[in-house]
Design goal:
three-stranded antiparallel beta sheet, six-stranded antiparallel beta sheet, Phosphorylase Kinase, domain 1, 3 domains
Length: 451
């Protein structure tokens, strides 16, 4: 139950009657339920309740979710309202914070509310990454990219409200149901390519494209690209003093080894959209086979991404892939960026030609849809051009955008990852992996990449 928005505080023991009265008073004061629903709960409590279990059943019958009921029974009903949102349930928790399904009562819309973890506020890097996600997400408006609605700061806590996607991430879909049909996987690849083209036009790189960051909504047969928290402006969009520049200059390798392009290990700051296309190739392979392209420890996987040819594409049941599909995935997963598709737009035509099933799913016929020419993108806007710039405008730097508490001890910073240099943090992790697993290839990998 712990979270940055929901901090449980111990309270004196209460009888069921006094607890029930306090909960009803909070429900009425905070307007978590309608006045009628709150009155129904109060009427149900006229005869009292012998146990907390009975009280919980009455609250659920009155309209509270299981999550809200647990919080109310813990004496924390007031914590169900944060930044004007009514928290409905906790749907996820990651390195940066907690995500809730929340109701925006002013307009009656259910949204995803991401709240930064309070124990991470002391990290300037995390604060920068969170504010960067606010800026980047606010500048994107595309049917296959999760849309941002609101952002702000409450009691020294940052939050970001986005579109709530009522679906399942593709890692869970494949993990539970096995590989996807070719037509479904191709359609997802097509939609993801359109999303990548959109962020490419904005001068952005996702850097962590993978099945768990793609949310599939079966009701609409669409995919949504999630989590731009690791995004960064590409080199052409960065000035020496750009607010976002330090995000990939702190010696940390960004990405997930299962799907990460080889060049992302060497120079995470210098990668461009072709790194995302590599990750899309790995993702498409996973969707079609249910297997990762390369297995082993994280170090082994990184070595394989850099030096091992892509595995042969074998569809479930041993079926041969359609002509050109293996070559398409192989080109996406080329070791050198110059050997891949150079932009998502380049991939679209090849994908439609290789998988005509996509055209039928898009139009209801077998005739390929007419591709709309995408204009040459304008020079990418730098940080400060988004809809939520008021969060930054009053501060000299992104790091000063909110009070940092408590000020923890200064952490030593490794050297910036210049081209061909490896993060000292990653080297330490790699050395530990070598010590534990004795993997000889890790030593070769370090010898090749650490200059």
């Amino acid at each position: 139950m712990s979270s940055s928005a929901l901090r449980m505080r111990p309270r004196p023991a209460q009888t069921p009657e006094t607890k029930a009265a306090a909960i009803v008073a909070d429900l009425r004061r905070l307007k978590i339920l309608s006045a009628r629903a709150t009155q129904q709960i109060e009427d149900s409590l006229v005869d009292g309740c012998a146990t907390s279990e009975e009280l919980g059943e009455i609250l659920r019958e009155g309209g509270l979710t299981d999550f809200q009921t647990q919080v109310a029974l813990a004496g924390q009903t007031s914590r169900l309202v944060f930044a004007g949102f009514v928290l409905l349930e906790k749907v996820g928790e990651g390195g940066m914070g907690v995500v809730y399904r929340a109701l925006q009562p002013r307009i009656g819309r259910v949204e995803a509310l991401k709240v930064i973890r309070t124990d991470k506020v002391g990290s300037a890097t995390t604060v920068k990454r969170f504010l960067r996600e606010i800026q980047l997400t606010s500048s994107l408006e595309h049917p296959y990219v999760v849309r941002a609605y609101d952002a702000g700061e409450v009691d020294e806590q940052l939050y970001l409200a986005t579109e709530f996607v009522n679906g399942t991430d593709l890692a869970t879909v494949v993990g539970g149901g096995g590989p996807l049909a070719l037509a479904d996987a191709a359609l997802i690849a097509y939609q993801t390519t359109l999303a990548l083209q959109h962020i490419h036009e904005k001068g952005l790189v996702h850097r962590d494209l993978k099945p768990s960051n793609l949310m599939w909504d079966p009701a609409t047969a669409t995919v949504k690209l999630l989590d731009l928290g690791l995004s960064g402006f590409n080199q052409s969009g960065l000035d020496a003093g750009a607010a976002g520049a330090p995000l990939t200059r702190n010696g940390v390798v960004l990405g997930t080894p299962d799907f990460m392009a080889p060049e992302q290990v060497q120079d995470p700051h210098g990668v461009d959209i072709r790194a995302d296309l590599y990750s899309l190739g790995c993702t498409l392979y996973f969707l079609l086979t249910g297997e990762l392209p390369f297995n082993g420890s994280p170090v082994e996987k990184m070595y394989s991404h850099g030096y091992t040819p892509p595995p042969p594409l074998v569809l479930p049941g041993g079926a041969a892939p359609p002509p050109g599909l293996s070559e398409l995935i192989g080109r996406l997963m080329a070791k050198k960026p110059a050997d891949r598709f150079q932009t998502p737009q380049d991939l679209l035509a090849a994908l439609l030609a290789t998988c005509p099933e996509v055209a039928g799913r898009l139009t209801g016929t077998s005739t390929p849809p007419q591709l709309v020419a995408i204009p040459v993108p304008a020079p990418p806007a730098g940080p400060g051009s988004g809809a939520f710039d008021h969060l930054l405008s009053a501060h000299d730097s992104v790091a000063d955008a909110l009070p940092v508490h408590p000020p923890g001890p200064a952490q030593p910073q490794g050297p910036g990852p210049g081209k061909g240099r490896f993060s000292w943090l990653w080297i330490a992790a790699t050395a530990a992996a070598m010590f534990v697993s004795g993997f000889a290839g890790a030593a070769l990998y370090l010898a090749l990449f650490v200059k």
